[in-house]
């Protein structure tokens, strides 16, 4: 006898097994056969059923019927049921093609059902004080598993056969319940009327009928019964469900049938179901113990009803929401409604039914915010409310839209992103009014856009984020300018200048502190671009807003070793150069800028020149301080930036200015930190070819000479 250490392949045959392994395996089975007690002998042999492959090709096929027959010797029907369930499980694992043993186990199980009503079982239940319905539920897992094994890929005819056998049995409710759970929903749905007839004939005392209807409802939620039978099915099921007294049992069953109702019927039937749920769950505040099921009802309704005008026209929908008394649950339900609304409400709406209901839901979410609410939760709620606000439109009725924004501001005052969205909405409203009037406001529309500006001016100070305030002050000022609201625009821009000193030197970005300089520089550049079209106030001095902004920049506490202030000064020079032109680069239709107010007045130009000289002096003074080795790179960059501004906006026919530009060019290349700007030289050379720019020829020669040294 030889020993082969090589492992057997998965698809081995008896011929591949050596004699030692066969002898060992046979010895195991002989030892198992010597176990006197039936139950342990059965379980141990079933556990190593697969080992029959070592002994013969047909070992498993011969053993399964024998083990099935052995179970008939067990006196306790409950123990026998679970023994059959285990045998079916093992059989499906080692030989899923052998359906005969599965069917034999099912039919044996049916035969033992008579024992349940026998004297021995009833005496045991009486001694242990166990009610029959509770005892019957102990069978469910075993029966469900056995029937699932039988129903797996089974033909529809098998269900018909099982139903016929079930009809011939007494106390068949438990089996009927498992049949409906085990077979494919499509098979069950086509026979829904037959199942209802069988449920009616069941004994109520043995197994509650509402559980049977629950199992039927689960199948009908996945597959559709014949259309002509649907209303009858719903009526028959709900007759039983509505009589269930225990709120938890009622809710477990009603939750299942809500989906069938939503899937096949209109708001009328769904409203009736909701009314019945409210009727059952309101007494003694039973709804407090059924929040998961009630939430499931809401989810199922939202799955099938995406038209919110239909949804909110159900009389009992909002009263149904009122049952969610626990704050956290109520907010979750409101969030789920809002998510579906934002996803499926494709058209803008002004429907008062929708607006009133959604305002109520959004207010519920907003009012849940307190000092302990996490920022992520606030952000999530704000996004949902913003999604609703964006879907509201009253068309050309702009006054009604503004009234809605006023109401929303009062309702959602604790969520800053919502207030920001409302300000954007009102600014957009003002611009839409301008577009409708084609820039020619009537007395009525002029008053309306001023009201929009007032709304924004009142709302912006309530924002805690200084960056939001700055951005919205400037944006609202630009909108006011576009609508010829000069005093309002002036107020917005002055407010922005007054807020700028409050900006901290560092800001938190994703939990990390970052310098705020880049934001300030971008913002001030945008602000400067706006100031070109802002006319001076008659009661203030020339360029008062420009001077106010530059004074703020002068007084602001910038970071140590920062060039930000000087960069602002360099950025202000193109603005001043543009203001000195007879015709501005851009303007706002129907609004006079400084080009019209001053008309090239020498005093105005003199003020601009003085301011430019002051700024250039400040810049040059700063460049003189950047002489250390660690600062020369910054000096080079700033010098070249100022050179570019003088080249683009300065009159280089002025010898003094021309010499300054050459000095700046030389300074930018002095320490070798600035590559020779070949393209810059080519650009200047190209400009010098124009008749009005011939004076650049001398400059380009001097720059080129310096670049070669």
Per-chain topology:
Layout: H1 19-33, H2 38-47, H3 59-71, H4 77-94, H5 99-116, H6 119-128, H7 132-137, H8 140-151, H9 156-167, H10 173-182, H11 185-190, H12 192-201, H13 209-222, H14 230-241, H15 247-264, H16 267-281, H17 291-304, H18 308-311, H19 317-321, H20 327-344, H21 352-367, H22 375-390, H23 398-411, H24 416-436, H25 443-459, H26 466-482, H27 486-499, E1 506-509, E2 512-515, H28 517-531, H29 544-555, H30 564-579, H31 594-598, H32 602-625, H33 632-649, H34 655-669, H35 678-688, H36 696-708
Antiparallel strand pairs: 1-2
Helix pairs in contact: 2-4, 3-4, 4-5, 4-8, 5-8, 8-10, 10-13, 12-13, 13-15, 14-15, 15-16, 15-17, 17-20, 20-21, 20-22, 21-22, 22-24, 23-24, 23-25, 24-25, 24-26, 25-26, 25-27, 26-27, 27-29, 28-30, 30-32, 30-33, 33-34, 34-36, 35-36
Protein name: VPS35 endosomal protein-sorting factor-like
Family: Belongs to the VPS35L family.
Subcellular location: Endosome
Question: Main β-sheet, in a few words?
Answer: 2 strands, antiparallel
Q: Give, in spatial order, the strands making up the sheet with the most strands.
A: 1-2
Number of strands: 2
How confident overall, as mean pLDDT? 89
Give the N-terminus to C-terminus distance in angstroms. 100 Å
**Unreliable parts:** 705-709
Helical region count? 36
The global form is elongated
Rg over CA atoms: 43 Å
User: What portion of residues belong to β-strands?
Assistant: under 5%
Subcellular location: Endosome
Protein name: VPS35 endosomal protein-sorting factor-like
Family: Belongs to the VPS35L family.
Keywords: Endosome, Protein transport, Transport
